[in-house]
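Comment thread on ticket #2218

A.B. wrote:
> Attaching the input chain for the structure job we discussed in standup.
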Amino acid sequence: MNTRSFPGIPGDGPGRVAMVMSNAIGDTLVLMVIAQNLLGNGIDVTVFGRQAHELRHWFPNVTIQPLPDQAETTALLAPYDTVLQMHRHQPMPRLTEVHPCVLDLEKVCLVDRSGCMAERFADFCRDELGLSNVGLHNGITPPPALRHRQYIRRVAIHPEASTEDKRWLSGRFMKLARSLRQRGYDVHFVIAPHERGRWCELESWDIPAPEFSTPHELACWLYESGWFIGNDSGIGHLASNLSIPTISLFRRRRVSERWRPAWGTVKVVLPWQWVPTARLKEKFWRQTLTCARVLSAFQRLVRDDCNSAKQGSSQL
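C.D. wrote:
> Ran it. Output below, let me know if you need it in another format.
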């Protein structure tokens, strides 16, 4: 990788930065922390990305373009002093062959240190890029027509994840949904079109699973929901980013410390920790993470949210 001092730091000139976003929605949201910090320090930034472009209405102060085709990459990136990408070879492979100054964040993602990814990216802005005005906010701004948590009894459940090893047992998600409905909650499942074949039983249980044609539509619906429960996934990051009280299910503590959602009120729920060794924890986490454990965490989340609302009212 070709490297040089980062443009935009005092003494290096104004600089222009192109950020190539991940195709994953969660990675995109945490990468927007870097974009927001660059903008907050007066650096000209353009974001390129598939998910980012779909959510461009939620980031009105950022210039966001679609991810370019490989043939267009050299010409589109030529005006920028530095190109930043989260992973070395994706979504744009061989990026160093088309631009003289590429920074990737592989080391930031993989190094053994404390902090979730959003916190790591904020630290990167401060420690590696030398930015002085640094925060965790990624600039997400809801469209003004929406009403936050308008449907307070609606619980969005996301039972899927990018890989099989992150998915809790489907039967336990169904049991959780039934328990929540018995308590008066309006439960909906969030499932992508290619995942619906694994959830045919939802119709027999009369559990709605609305369809969304774009991430923007999903974000609008989620922003007006009351609660979110789901596996370690990008949708969990989105719910957290929209300040929807979130339950996030993880298979291991160390994984959760790195990849947990960074915003709003989030309760990470882990399996029982009595299982010895990391290998066995990975193998049996679905069985040792019980429905009762998740439901108990949700009840605490509701109680804490109620107490916060009362405190806010008393201070008016």
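A.B. wrote:
> Thanks. Noting for the ticket: The chain has a mean pLDDT of 90.
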